Amino acid sequence: MIVVNARFLTQKITGIQRYAIEICNMLPKIIANKKLVFVVPNETIINKLDDDKDIIVLGKLKGQLWEQLSLPAFLNKNNNPMLINFMGISPVFYKNKIMFLYDLAYRHHPEWFSYSFQKLYNLLIPISIKNTKILITDSNYVKEDIVNTYKISPSKIDVIYAAPSKKFINKNLNREKFILTVSSIDPRKNLERVIKAFNKLNSDYKLVIVGQKNKTFSNIGFSAEIMNDSIIFTGYLSDDQLVDIYNRAELFIYGSLFEGFGIPPLEAQACGCACIISNATSLPEVYQSSVEYFNPHSIDNIKNVMEEIINNKVKREKLETLGLLNLKRFNWNNSAAKLKSIIEELL
């Protein structure tokens, strides 16, 4: 058998969980004559896979203890099958595995994360990387970063891009006067500068922020003086709600300081929404000429680009068209096929 660490089925969907779920939905039940089995801790399963995949609920431990103790014990009892680990640290000392690593933000910006999270990742990820057969990441930017940071051979790392879910479609709804951003509420997403830039606009637009805080990240709050009635926090939204709000927004903004890939602008493009985004890290690789870029460290530059696009309907419509063309570069079927090929080669 081939075992998938499916802890992501017990977690609310953000970018990494969506990546894992979408690829797993596309993988066949049998690869190289071996059955694909999904193993989860004894927690509530809140995400469903499309097909009737084999799911095994395992052990009494949770979180990192489950991943480092219960999961490897199960693997050892079953003749050490190949493990596919889509997120987290993975069982550190288990060697017959494919490990996914989406970015090195915890290494370069430990201040963005809780103390315990960044210490654990900085201690254990390098060990886990050494004990993996193939490392998979989501952009060439991250691949190069891993090679330079951990002195890993490029031949040990493969890149498999993300894509938007098929749920995200253009419903051709009437666009409303609001600027949308979708992200977790954490320091790397740069929301304070986005809010300050928005407040400099002379317009009747609103800024809608979708997302919630996560204990993984260091605490973030916004000073009272930058908040006003034009700024709306929705909290976490379901996929159906997200599709609706992407379709109603006139403009999507993504101000992130650090991304391994960055799925939300692709979702916005799939829903026909023009995008303006940060020019940092992997984002120019993923979005090329389909968006308008800004310097995420400059409040004035963010404000100027925001203002230019909301006031220029022709340019906004051009970005909508370019976004739809950019989508053709990304497909979960292709991503899953590449993973399947990697698994077959290792087996």
Query: What fold name goes in the CATH topology slot of the largest domain?
Result: Rossmann fold
Helix content: 25-40%
Task: Give the N-terminus to C-terminus distance in angstroms.
Answer: 11 Å
Output the number of helix runs. 12
In sequence order, what are the helices and strands, one letter per element?
EHEEEHEEHHEHEEHEEHEHEHEHHH
What is the CATH class of the largest domain?
A: Alpha Beta
Biggest β-sheet strands, sense, barrel: 8 strands, mixed
Which superfamily, in CATH terms, is the homologous superfamily of the largest domain? Glycogen Phosphorylase B
Beta-strand level of the residues, as a percent range? 15-25%
Low-confidence blocks of residues:
none
What's the number of structural domains? 2
What is the molecular shape? globular
Observed structural traits:
single chain; 347 residues; Rossmann fold; 14 strands; 38% helix
Report on the structure:
The protein is built from twelve helices and 14 strands. Strands 1, 2, 3, 4, 5, 6, 7 and 8 form an eight-stranded mixed β-sheet that branches. It has a six-stranded parallel β-sheet with strand order 11-10-9-12-13-14, with helices on both faces. Helix 9 links the parallel strand 13 (275-278) and strand 14. The longest helix is centred in the middle third of the chain and has 16 residues, at 115-130. It folds into two domains: 2-163 and 331-346, Glycogen Phosphorylase B (Rossmann fold); 176-327, Rossmann fold (3-Layer(aba) Sandwich). Helix 1 crosses helix 12 (332-346), helix 6 crosses helix 10 (299-310) and helix 8 packs across helix 11 (313-327). The chain is α/β, with parallel strands linked by helices. 38% of the residues lie in helices and 18% in strands. The model has no long low-confidence stretch (mean pLDDT 93). It has helices at 15-26, 63-77, 105-108, 115-130, 140-150, 191-199, 239-248, 264-270, 283-287, 299-310, 313-327, 332-346; strands spanning 2-5, 30-31, 34-41, 54-58, 82-85, 97-100, 134-137, 157-159, 176-182, 206-210, 231-235, 249-254, 275-278, 292-294.
